[in-house]
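Per reviewer request, we include the raw input and output of the structure prediction for the construct analysed in the revised manuscript.
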Amino acid sequence: MFRKVLVANRGEIAVRVMRACEELNVGTVAVYSDADKHGGHVRYADEAYNVGPARAADSYLDHEAVIEAAKKADADAIHPGYGFLAENAEFAAKVEEVEGITWIGPSSSAMESLGEKTKARTIMHEADVPIVPGTTDPVTDPDEVRAFGDEHGYPIAIKAEGGGGGRGMKVVEDESEVDDQLESAQREGEAYFGNDSVYLERYLEKPRHIEVQIIADEHGNVRHLGERDCSLQRRHQKVIEEGPSPALSDELREQIGEAARRGVAAADYTNAGTVEFLVEEQLGRESVLGADANFYFLEVNTRIQVEHCVTEEITGLDIVKRQIRVAAGEELDFEQDDVEIDGHAMEFRINAENAAKDFQPASGGTLTTYNPPGGIGVRLDDALSQGDELVTDYDSMIAKLIVWGEDREECIERSLRALREYEIEGITTIVPFHRLMLTDEMFVEGRHTTKYLDNELEPSRIEQAQEQWGSEESTGTGASADETVVEREFTVEVNGKRFDVNLEDRSGEIPQAASNGGSSTAGGPPQSASSDDSSSDVEIQGDGERVDAEMQGTILAVEVAEGDEVAAGDVVVVLEAMKMENDIVASTGGTVSQVAVEEGQSVDMGDTLVVLE
């Protein structure tokens, strides 16, 4: 078994992995950006190392910085969690080449084969796993998309090779959208995954999203742990996951599970992963979907999933601990026939978003009240404490509530109780939305599809739920200026390693920390770095109409140049925030007199992007 594991992630998943390590008597190492100096995962770890500024590309996604932190900490394994570098085959290969450090996950070659969707489709087809009609080679020319549409019809899904979670995926409704959507999918693929290759699939109109959890060891054993139903989605982003699926018969469930095992075995895959399928819903059905229902391979997620907790609750198996044990060379300690599904579980993603405002991400705030629920069958995966500031540089998910019941009915009842108990003040969350869904007829009956939230649910119902059960963002950022504080905790860095220091403040004034970088003077807390590429450093000229950033994010594309004429409603900048691509448009027409940002730049809410005269 390993001595010390570095977790190359942040937030709740980093804490989840560290807890598994603790139970295995393995030391833990956190990495963090300047924005996460006081993060919950940093507090939990045995030791922590700074890997760079707030921008993910310069910290959590920096291969060399993460590996160097592992070397400094003398860690003998790296666990990537999910997101960030978790499905980056290049990074996994670099870790594999470092003597004395083990990659906790599938091999880089398996990740490359299954992570790139066209290769995965080929492998699955050869393993007799049903696949959606689509291309097996990357597509670069709009004419190829049009030809596919002529053969298979519209709509068409254009998907990034390295994509997942809806990122890098665009839907072409008709021929007129081909050029724009192809370019957009390629741009997102490059921005999120460093790979602009895309492929095509026939887009299923109203499917269910069913995924199978698998775990495989280096001794040829492959097990599936049942399925999860992730059909409740918004713009391809999962919101509520549950297991087992309320829509499948036992015969169909077994067919899908065995198809997943077959495909993974053909890929020579080891460690944990998820095989995702689309199952065609039979509208108006009077019972569960039978063995004759059509299901198609979608993709393999070569990592632990956000929703792995659902499977853990209904099987009683700790998936993360088995990931670590498999990476250490151990053989799986159970047979396929030993896997039993007990009861029903649901996971609720607690996102810092306002569902009534098109799930707009919170712009900041302080957790003035944080009192999570408890009781039988209630699990909370988070990295939060009351008083924490919301970090808005990354994903909007701040916690996961997982609820178990003896059956789906009890699970829903218990979930409603837990959500009512969940007290969060100071930050807007989607808890009211979850409470609404647990009383929604389509969801309760298990007849919802992946299109239900986007196309069928009445938005006014979400607005009413937010008004009735929601809370507003805090206006302050902590204690008032005249508040007397007796003792305060500070953080200093020495050669990139984090240390906590408690100081007693009698004067009410604490000396400020040294500038960002290697070390701080004993005294104030390290100050978050201001990004070198922030648009706030650009002098805005003239008094024309300013087009400002509506939220914090990263510039994916600048669609105008100085001197261009634009009309009201024209897109001037494409901004990525909280996994979503957002078109920033001009509210009035005019001539572009200044472009204050460039592609790849990080911006804050309110920063000026473009000036119009």
